[in-house]
Design goal:
With 391 residues, the chain is of the alpha+beta class. It folds into three domains: 3-160 and 288-332, no CATH class; 191-271, no CATH class; 346-383. 39% of the residues lie in helices and 24% in strands. The chain contains 14 helices and twelve strands. Strands 1, 2, 3, 4, 5, 6, 7, 8, 9, 10, 11 and 12 form a twelve-stranded mixed beta sheet that branches. Helix 1 (3-18) crosses helix 11 (311-332) and helix 3 packs across helix 11 (311-332). The chain is elongated and about 95 Å long. The two termini are 42 Å apart.
């Protein structure tokens, strides 16, 4: 990139973190240094967000990392926006009119937080029909396309929710990216034990399975307890999944009531047979960090505010919104010592940056030299005005 493009990207990230109201081009002109047309034109130009975020993740995140993929519904009115249609909204519990992005993130398991890698807008159903592909195939293609970046970050596992526990998605990801899939299985999934008895000596194929798994009463010859607490117990084993037609490493979670009886069972699975059951459980729980990434971007960096109907501008806006959360996390949270890190609050960071923006505007309008005043003790109080953590 040339210097102009670098300066604009730094300015845009800072602007998304300090401006208030809707993050559209008209409001960017009010808060920023360029006119509305300049923002529109620069949002059309390509930028490799995956490469930028990859290097940022490599710089700040711990060595234990997994990938997480999850689609996210974005509200969008009108009928002429590319990709607009009926998409599933998890928070609403039903399909809503709008657009959808498929977000791929890297979860820092040690620090239990997610960093955005790249997002791709989901096409509408008519486009998928014309291309002769399905929605699951599109999602798998998004993951496979970014496999080079994930490989460079030494990521070997992909965590997805129970919707993706289907054979076409799992097979495509394994074949196209080399990532092992971690997911949650249906409660009525057919799992079968491996037969370990003697050969019968009869004709035909040797016996492979030794009966169906009852997840409420796992066989101690095959399942072992890998973790136990007063309110839950975790079992692990290698069993065969009939739906996937492959052997899986499963971690069966028993949630216990006050009398120690099983009240609820959840089945977590990984295509990596060597992965410990405890890690299967922890990695799947870490997948939920991508939801907080979407929450922060929707609430504070304008993920749903793009009013353009241009593919390039929309893609730039969505990735910039999520990347701004990355930059804030790297600059204001990762820089703290491990013992000093509290919950990450993008709201407090935005309040501080907005106060700094107002101070700079005051200095500029009144013609004051800001350098002697920036080190004044009262500046800290003004900078932290409205910040909850500083109260």
């Amino acid at each position: 990139m040339n210097k102009w493009r670098k300066d604009f990207f730094r300015h845009a990230v800072h602007l998304f973190l300090c401006m208030r109201g809707r993050h559209n081009f008209e409001n960017m002109e009010r808060y920023g240094s360029y006119d509305e047309c300049s923002y529109r034109l620069n949002f059309e130009k390509p930028f490799d967000f995956a490469l930028f975020n990859r290097e940022l993740i490599r710089l700040v995140c711990g060595p234990e990392r997994i990938a997480a993929f999850d689609p996210s519904y974005l509200a969008k009115s009108g009928k002429h926006t590319p990709g607009v249609g009926w998409h599933w909204s998890g928070s609403a519990g039903h399909a809503k009119w709008g657009i959808e992005i498929g977000g791929l993130a890297v979860v820092d398991v040690t620090n239990n937080t997610a960093m955005h890698l790249r997002s791709t807008q989901t096409p509408d159903s008519a486009w998928l029909r014309d291309e002769g592909t399905g929605l699951l195939e599109h999602y798998a293609d998004v993951v496979c396309t970014a496999s080079g970046h994930l490989s460079a970050l030494s990521v070997r596992h992909l965590a997805v929710d129970a919707y993706f526990a289907k054979r076409p998605f799992v097979d495509m990801v394994l074949a196209g990216s080399g990532l092992h899939v971690i997911t949650r299985l249906r409660d009525d999934t057919v799992l079968r034990y491996r037969y370990t008895g003697p050969a019968t000596g009869g004709k035909g194929r040797p016996r492979e399975f030794a009966g169906r798994v009852d997840v409420r009463n796992p066989d101690p010859e095959h399942f072992t307890v890998c973790c136990e607490e007063p309110t839950w117990r975790l079992y692990e084993a290698v069993v065969h999944c009939k739906a996937f037609k492959r052997w899986l490493k499963v971690a069966v979670l028993h949630e216990l009531d006050g009398n120690g009886r099983v009240k609820r069972v959840k089945i977590y699975a990984s295509t990596d047979l060597q992965l410990p059951g405890h890690d299967v459980f922890i990695y799947y729980k870490g997948r939920f960090q991508i939801e907080f990434l979407y929450r922060d971007a929707k609430g504070h960096t304008g993920l749903e505010h793009c009013q353009s109907r241009n593919d390039d501008r929309m893609g730039f806006h969505h990735n910039l919104s999520l990347t701004a959360v990355n930059v804030a996390k790297a600059t204001y949270w990762y820089c703290l010592g491990e013992g000093q890190r509290g919950p990450f609050s993008i709201a407090d960071i935005k309040a501080q940056l907005f106060n700094e923006l107002m101070l700079e505007r005051f200095f500029c309008v009144f013609g004051k030299d800001a350098d002697p005043l920036k080190n004044h003790p009262s500046i800290v109080h003004i900078r932290n005005f409205g910040v909850k953590a500083a109260a």
